[in-house]
Amino acid sequence: SCPHCKWSSAPKRQFSSWSHLVRVIAAVFCYCPPLGMESHRVEDDQILASSMSHHGFSAQRGRLNMQVTTNDEDDVYGGGWCADSEEKEHWFQLDAHREVEYTGVITQGRHSETNDDFVSSYFVAFSNDSRDWTVLHDGYAEWLFYGNVDKDTPVKAEFSHPVVARYIRILPQSWNGSLCLRLEVLACPLPNSYPNENDVTPNDDLDYRHHNYKEMRQMMKVINEECPNITRIYNIGKSSQGLKMYAMEISDNPGEHETGEPEFRYTAGLHGNEVLGRELLLLLMQFLCKEYNDDNPRVRRLVDGVRIHLVPSLNPDGYELAYEMGSEMGNWALGHWTEEGYDIFQNFPDLNSILWGAEDRGWVPRIVPNHHIPIPENFLNGSVAPETKAIIAWMERTPFVLGANLQGGEKIVTYPFDMQRPPRTADESMFRWLAMTYAHSHLTLTETYRSSCHTDDITGGQGIINHASWKPVVGSMNDFSYLHTNCFEISIFLGCDKFPHESELAQEWENNREALLAFIEQVHRGIKGVVRDTENNIIANATISVEGIRHDVKTASTGDYWRLLNPGEYRVTARAEGYSPQTRLCMVGYEAGATSCSFTLTKSNWARIRQIMAQSGRKPRVKLKV
Ligand SMILES: *[C@@H]1O[C@H](CO)[C@@H](O)[C@H](O)[C@H]1NC(C)=O
Ligand SMILES: *[C@@H]1O[C@H](CO)[C@@H](O)[C@H](O)[C@H]1NC(C)=O
Ligand SMILES: *[C@@H]1O[C@H](CO)[C@@H](O)[C@H](O)[C@H]1NC(C)=O
Ligand SMILES: *[C@@H]1O[C@H](CO)[C@@H](O)[C@H](O)[C@H]1NC(C)=O
Ligand SMILES: *[C@@H]1O[C@H](CO)[C@@H](O)[C@H](O)[C@H]1NC(C)=O
Question: Where, if anywhere, are coiled coils annotated (predicted)?
C-alpha cells in the first residue's frame, strides 16, 4: 500500500456536516491522481517523443482529450501525437522533473473525424536519467499492456506495484491505422519529497470532493441547516429524467426581492461532463455560509447587498452519466448533452437574427426594441429541452442583473455576442471589463505561456475573448439573456480538464475563490434607482436608456432598475407609457457601489396621450417571421 497517496479511488462517503467531515480512506488499492497531461500542469517541455508524422502531431499534442479545433486534417493543431511511420523505434516520454511513484497510465487514440488511429498494445519503461531504461516486467517477461480498441474511449492500465522513477516511456508495439496516441499518467509524489508549487494546503476547511446528485442535495441541506437565516433551497425545474435543478439562494432576506438589491446568478453543469463549476459553486455556498457566520466583513457586505442564486447543475442527467464513468475515464463528450440530446448552452431562441434583421431595416428601436425582444411564438413548440424551458422561465421571473455560467474544456472567459456577426454588443466595453475581472482575479487563467488548451493562446494574453470570434454559436444562453432580459451573462471556461481528479479540487478552489467573489461584486458597478410617479407609486416595466448605448433595460415589477456601466458621465432617460420621459445626468465613479439615479415621471396630459396613440395607430403593424 502507499499511505502517502492522497486519495483512494473510492473514499467512503460519510459525513454528518461538512465542517465535521470524517474522511475514511479505503486504502485497499491505491491509485495515484493524474500528473496533469490533460490539465496542462505537465508543461510542454516535459513531453518528448521519438518522432512525429508532421508538425501538427508533435509530442505536445499527446495529452488526454486533446481536440482538433477544425476538421482540417492538416491542421497545425492535430488530435494527438502521431509517430513518423519511417522510423523503426517508437516511444513517448514524460519527465516528471523529479522522482515520483508511477502507478498507471491512461491511453486514448487520436481525435479525428475520419481516421481510426490508436495504439492497441505497448510496453512501459522507466528511467532516472533518460539513458538507462528498465522495461516493466510482469514477473516472467516484459509486460505487454493492451491499449485502445477505438480512438476516443480512454483505457486505464494499472501497474501491479508503484514504480519509483523520474521518466516514464510508452513503447507502442501495435496500432490501428497510424501510430497516434493521447495519454495521461498517474503518479504520486514520493513520501518524503519536499513540497512543490502544486501541493496545496487549502486555507478554507471545506468539502473538497465530487458530489453526485444525492450528495449534492445532502450538502445543500447541510449548508441550509448551518445558515438558515441567509439561505434558501429551491429548484428551477426538472430534467427530462425527473432530477431537480436545485438552486441555493444566499441573501440577507432569502425568498424575497428587496427593492434596490440586485440579483446575481452563477450556474454550472449545463454540459453534464464539465463538473468543476458544480463543485466550485458547492464550495462557494459553504464558504459564504461559514464566513458570514464568522463575521467576515466582505462576505457580510456581499450577502447583505446582493441576492445571490447558485445553481450547480443545469444538466443533472448528463452529470450522472459522466460521474459513473469517473474522472478521466469518460471520453470528451460523455454527459455533454441532456438525456434527450440537447446542448443546453445553444438551445435558446435566436433573438440575434430578429434584432439584426430589424436593425438592417432601420426598425430599431422605433418598431423593434433593442432589448427585451419577445420569444418567437413557435419557439417553445419546437426542439427545446425541458431544462432550457425551465431556465428561460427562471430568467423571466427573476430580475437578474449579472450572471455567469461555469463551463470547462478550455481556460478562457468569453463574452457575447456568441453568434457571429461583425457588430459587437452595445455594451462591449462593459462586457470586456466583466470578463477581465474574472480572468485577472483568477490565479492562473492569464498564465498564457501555458497557451490555450487545444491551440496557442488566442486571447492576446488577456484570458478573455468575444465568444463569436472564438466559437460562433446560434441560440446561446448568453445572447438570449442579453437580448431578452436585463441580465448580462458571460461564460467562464475553468480549465482544460473537464472532470478534474478530486485531488485537484482544493487547488481549483484557491485558483477561483477571489475571482468568484470579485465577479459578484461587479453587480454594483454602474447606476441603479427606482422609477416612480409624482404620487410616489412605483412604475414597473419602465424603460431606461443611456445615450450612446443602444441597449435599454427595464424596471422590475418593484420599480427598481440596475444599469451596468463603466465609470463615466451618462445622460439617462426613463420612459413609461402614459408618462413624459425624464432625462438626468448620472455619474459613475471608480469607487465601489452603484450610483443612485432615480426618476419621478409626470403623467402626460390627455392630448399628448391621444397624439401618441394616433401616431402608433398609423404605424404599420409588423409581423416578424422567424
Ligand atoms: C530511480 O532511483 C530510485 C532511488 O532514488 C530507485 O529506487 C529506483 O528504482 C530508480 N528507478 C529506476 C527506473 O532506475
Ligand atoms: C482500424 O483502422 C482501419 C483503417 O486503417 C479502419 O477501417 C478500422 O475501422 C479500424 N478499426 C477499428 C476497430 O476502429
Ligand atoms: C437567525 O436570526 C435570528 C434572529 O435574528 C437569530 O436569533 C439567530 O441567532 C440567527 N441564527 C443564525 C444561525 O445565525
Ligand atoms: C404551440 O402549441 C400550443 C399548444 O401547446 C398551440 O396552442 C399553438 O398553436 C402552437 N403554436 C404553433 C405555432 O404551432
Ligand atoms: C412593457 O412595456 C412595453 C413597451 O415598452 C410593452 O410593449 C409591454 O407590453 C409591457 N409589458 C408589461 C408586462 O407591461
Answer: none
